[in-house]
Amino acid sequence: MPFPNAADLYNTIDATTLGDILWQSFSLLYDGELPKKNTPTWMSKSFKVFSQSPHAIVKNMLSNQGFDGHFDYKPVQHYDANGKWQYQNFMSGEWAWKQADIISQDDNTHGSMFVPIILGSNKTTVSVATGQNKYYLIYISIGNVHNSVRRAYQNVLALLGFLSIPKSKSLI
């Protein structure tokens, strides 16, 4: 095994950077009311979350010069030959226009740019030296980048964090 123990593995993960963003970790524990009978074991277990700063990731995306020409700084409208509104990218949607209108009504936000944050998640299983641990990956992106770039995965989708789910028969 490449790591002598779990602590060494976690320390290595915590010290790993992507660009200039450090990985951090924290634990989550359910603190709500417990059922009187048949309490699921996940309600009393602590789960480790590994993440990067969403602010730093978005800042890196906004400064990516590779998006030049494929990035909307404000909501846009595209029309076809018949004058019908064409929805091509996230910032061409009605919701983006409504959000920009809200921002424009506040004098303190004049000159600000609307940056929609898009989050996604999926589950994956890693079996190499981990004993089939499951992880829920959390991805982050911004809505300003055109779909053509998003589909090409040109640094517009970043791994924000992951929740490690240790192998257990009692977890859901």
Main pleated-sheet profile? 5 strands, antiparallel
- Compute the number of strand runs: 9
The poorly predicted ranges are: none
Helix content: 10-25%
Helix/strand layout:
Layout: H1 6-15, E1 17-18, E2 21-22, E3 24-29, E4 46-51, H2 54-62, E5 78-79, E6 85-86, H3 94-104, E7 117-126, E8 133-142, H4 147-151, E9 158-165
Antiparallel strand pairs: 1-2, 3-4, 4-9, 5-6, 7-8, 8-9
Can you walk me through this structure?
- InterPro entries: Plavaka.
- There is one protein chain.
- The protein has 172 residues and is α+β, with helices and mostly antiparallel strands.
- It folds into two domains: 6-69 and 117-165, no CATH class; 74-112, no CATH class.
- The chain is built from four helices and nine strands.
- The strands form three sheets. It has a five-stranded antiparallel beta sheet. A two-stranded antiparallel sheet has the order 1-2.
- A hairpin with a 2-residue loop joins strand 1 (17-18) and strand 2 (21-22).
- The chain is elongated and about 60 Å long.
- The two termini are 29 Å apart.
Concise structural overview:
This protein has 172 residues and is of the alpha+beta class. The chain has two domains: 6-69 and 117-165, no CATH class; 74-112, no CATH class. The protein contains four helices and nine strands; from the N terminus they run αββββαββαββαβ.
